Structures are given as C-alpha cells and as structure tokens.
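Please produce the structure of this protein holding inosinic acid.
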Amino acid sequence: MSDTTAWNRDTDPTLGEVLITSEQLHTRIAELGAAITADYAGEAPLLVGVLKGAFMFMADLSRTIDLPVEFDFMAVSSYGSATKTSGVVRIVKDLDADLTGRHVLLVEDIIDSGLTLTYLRKNLTSRNPASLEVCALLARADTVERSDLRYVGFAIPDDFVLGFGLDVAERYRNLDEIRVYRGPS
Ligand code: IMP
Ligand code: MG
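Below is the modeled complex.
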C-alpha cells in the first residue's frame, strides 16, 4: 500500500476543483426521489444498483423514496484503461432477483459513452421485467439526451470526475462531493 500517513484531501494534487457540492448533490437527490415516489405510486420497484460506483447514490436516493422498494446489485467490468472504457462489458456479479414482472429501476453512477447502459438495458430487458427505467446521478452533456434515460441528476462536461462513489483506481469513492480528476490519465 502506498504511504498515506501525510494524505489530506485538501492537499492531494489529484483532486481538482469541486464540480458538485455535497449540498447540491443532496438537494438534487431528494428531487429525484420525490419524482420516483410519484411516478411509481402503488408499486414496489426493484432498485438495481451497478457496483461499485452507484453504491453511495443508491443508498442516499433510496432514503428519499417513500415506497416499499427492494434492492439488488450487479457488478460489471468493462475493459479499458483507468479512465476510458472499451465498451466490452462483462457481468462480474449477477442479480439475485428474478426480474419477471418487476418494475426495475437501474441506478447508475455516470453515463459516459453510454455503452455500459446499452449493454445492461439489452441484458435486463431480456429477463422480462414489467418495466425498466434508468436513474443516473451524472451524464455527459452529449449522452443526457438519450431517450432511455428517465432520471438524471446532473449533466456534466467531459472531465473525468471523482467522489460520491466514483473512483480512480478504487480511491476517492468516499468523498461527499464530485471533484475533477487532475492526476495522470
Ligand atoms: P460508459 O459505458 O462509457 O457509459 O461508462 C460507464 C462507466 O465508466 C461508469 O459506470 C463509471 O464506472 C466509469 N466512468 C466513466 N466516466 C467516469 C468518470 O468521470 N469518473 C469515474 N468513473 C467514470
Ligand atoms: Mg469505475
């Protein structure tokens, strides 16, 4: 493990400017939760979180949804470098739940190229859910217009970002804000 004795989030040169503050995140997440609560009234939606990036968003979002939600998780890996996806997606951990007849809400950290979402949508649709919608915390300005993205927290520019679940090489997921990555690519 690298030396962390002098590490401090205010002096780490990898951490660039704050793009979305903690307060902005929590305000927007509450709005998304209210919209989901209204849209799924009378239902018990199944929240499907995509590990690991969505774990923090999913935890906070779910606490703002006033419905009997259930949880499941899957993990995918997409080949590529630390900051670029190749679009070749593989399921590393599959769901426990049977999706047949369920109202499934896929919860994602960020829609970047959208290739992961395209793959997951096709894969999950083949399991015959009653409905399948997507809620992403972040989406790039050019993917946010995708018609299959029902709920989006924030449209962001192309900078690689960190925090609130999002990582570089497994670090920085615990930041309670979204910051720009300023390290090596
Ligand atoms: P896509 O298939 O290009 O949409 O990539 C989606 C996945 O790439 C996300 O679920 C993230 O895990 C990762 N990713 C894309 N952009 C970023 C970023 O700016 N920071 C951290 N992870 C990212
Ligand atoms: Mg990642």
